[in-house]
Amino acid sequence: MSRGSLAVWWAGAAALAACAALLVAGLVLGGSVTEKVIPGLGDAGALTRWGLPVSRAAMDLLSALTVGALLAAAAFLPVEGGRAAPRLSGDAVGYLNAASWIAAAWAAAAAATLVFTVADVLGQPVGDVLTGSELSSYVGSLPQGTALMIVVLLAVVVALLARTTTTPAAAFGLLALAGIALLPAPLTGHSASAANHSTATTGVALHVAAVAPWVGGLAVVCAHALLRRDRLPLVAERFSRMAAWCYVTVGASGLVNVIARLPDPREMVETDYGRLALGKIIAFCLLGWFGWWHRTRTLPAVADGRPGMFARFASVEAAVMGATMGLAVALARTAPPAPAEPESAVKSLLGYDMPPQVTPVRLLTLGQFDLFFAALVVVLGGLYLAAVVRLRRRGDSWSWGRTASWLIGLLTIVAVTQTGVARYAPILFSVHMAQHMVLNMLTPIFLVVGAPVTLALRALKPARVRGDRGPREWLTAVLHSRYLAVIAHPAVATLIFVVSTFVLYFTPLFETAMRNHLGHIAMTVHFLASGSLFFWVLLGVDPAPRKLPYPARLLLLFVTMPFHAFFGIALMNMSQALARGWYTAVDPPWGTTILHDQHTGGAIAWGFGEVPTFIVLIVLAFQWYFHDQRQARRMDRKADRAAKAGGRPEDDELAAYNARLARLAERDRAAGERAAGEKDKA
């Protein structure tokens, strides 16, 4: 074994020891392994009490290492082969092979966690669960069991495909698949049952999505440094930029999670859960200091050809990171404080009490904070404005109208996700339909007219390493991909825009999405994405695989919009309510009947289509007019260039066209003269 490999093993052992120490301390201090066994109740035994958090910690660490190895292969190391035939470097392929083995271990740890979880829920020893039929019976019925089974399957897929992957696009696909596999397990824990479960669920999703690349990326960069691999300065710099964003996301989402579970600040010191959360906050601040030290001390040392300082410091940071993850697992095994007052049935479903009777004023003023869409608006708005500022600073112009259109689109998202509309949407189908119509048919128009892709292509800088793929190159590759060529085809985009609405509402999918916060987010994001895809094809300002002529765009508009009217009429004529089980459970005492409210929602869907149609017609008219103006100016410039080049008619399209007409007229005149001459002879 080489000296570098031995150093990697020592660093890994130190991180594991720190993780185990803080995990055991947190479990003991939190009381999750010292609970008294009540006679007469089922007891899973000491093996489950200790085995479940240990397997969960192993699963979290292995998932982060898998993501880190895939990140190193897909993003940290530069792509070789140039644009014509991009391929992964030798080190990147090595990290993919490592990701394959780590993902297999991740799947095994998730399977062990699944067994321990079933034993813990049923209160039976692990041996009884493995030898009986409980495991197969409860996997599909327990949310935690279903989530862990999904993790096992996805991790196995990553492990198998990583062995044969050699292209950058495939590596990014595996990274995305591993990112999806991170989410099911943590989202079925305390976050799903917290008082503010919608905010807590989104906070946990953001937290996990930022922690895994941060932890895994640090581990891989540390190993890269200890092994003395090539391109360490570039790898360390790229990780440092990503880690800064991860740190901010982890801090913000962690703060949201703490507030959601501990609304009273005194609980931070008076409860076991609060004290563990406070310890995690201290560890988070310590990791922030490590990051600052890296930026100011170790990264310059790496640039100067002294990687040893970075490797030693990163190894210590990895140990602190491992200890923090052990503390996080102990925190997840500790129950948060119970609410002071028992929750109503409606609050357990919605996350908040039944609001008062709906009025137009309350729809505008009775706010409902949605962390996911608040973060989405902040990110989209911040990136767009940052790109505009970059263009302005280098002397390039960008239309204020496009900027205003983008900001108006974001404002419409805020109007239906952060106000009383979002509070009443889960309760009243009519308000939900109004939210749907805005996000699906109004917001995308303004976002598409804002031309974000064109702005990104102009603002992003090319990759520093020749032949590598930076954000600009990846965006260009996506625009030229076969996948985008298929979904951006006008027929496909129209089918997604129209058919998905009927499939969602006239199948059990709608009620399933309403009962689950993540399902509700997925449904709302689909409204926004499908509408943006359709109006991108219709109003396409940004580069697209296929551009329709303006008459075809008008035809597509008039063919598509009646389908939403048909959808509204179908809702108005239904005799059975959609998602009856959900709306019966949250039926407000001041509301009308469920079926009447559904008919009102159908009327909104039927009448709302006129608004986006009118806006699209105005936008298309302006686009058509300015397109013709640009074409005319282009022809004039070409004619001027042809005149300066010597006046050759073949260099001027207009002159060539006039010359062709003259030749046709001359031919017709000659033919007429010949015909007249033959007539005179006869």
Number of beta strands? 0
Overall outline: globular
**First-to-last CA distance:** 109 Å
Helix content: over 70%
Low-pLDDT stretches: none
The helix-strand sequence is HHHHHHHHHHHHHHHHHHHHHHHHHHHHH
Helix vs. strand class? mainly alpha
Describe the main β-sheet briefly.
none
Q: What's the Cα radius of gyration?
A: 31 Å
Number of helices: 29
* Residues in β-strands, percent: under 5%
What count of domains describes the coordinates? 4
GO biological process, one term: copper ion transport
Subcellular location: Cell membrane
Organism: Actinomadura citrea
Protein name: Putative copper resistance protein D
Outline the secondary-structure elements.
Elements: H1 3-30, H2 46-76, H3 90-122, H4 126-131, H5 134-139, H6 143-161, H7 168-182, H8 197-226, H9 232-261, H10 267-270, H11 272-303, H12 307-332, H13 345-350, H14 360-365, H15 371-393, H16 400-417, H17 420-424, H18 429-449, H19 452-459, H20 471-479, H21 482-487, H22 490-505, H23 509-515, H24 517-539, H25 550-572, H26 580-585, H27 594-608, H28 610-644, H29 653-681
Description of the molecule:
Pfam families: Caa3_CtaG, CopD. The chain crosses the membrane at residues 54-77, 98-122, 142-162, 169-187, 207-227, 239-261, 273-292, 313-332, 371-391, 403-425, 437-460, 481-506, 518-541, 553-572, 603-626. Keywords: Cell membrane, Membrane, Transmembrane, Transmembrane helix. The chain has 682 residues and is an all-alpha fold. The protein folds into 4 domains: 1-33 and 218-336; 43-188, no CATH class; 363-461 and 468-584 and 592-637, no CATH class; 648-680. The protein is 76% helix and 0% strand. It contains 29 helices and no strands. It has helices spanning 3-30, 46-76, 90-122, 126-131, 134-139, 143-161, 168-182, 197-226, 232-261, 267-270, 272-303, 307-332, 345-350, 360-365, 371-393, 400-417, 420-424, 429-449, 452-459, 471-479, 482-487, 490-505, 509-515, 517-539, 550-572, 580-585, 594-608, 610-644, 653-681. The longest helix is centred in the last third of the chain and has 35 residues, at 610-644. It is globular. The model has no long low-confidence stretch (mean pLDDT 85).
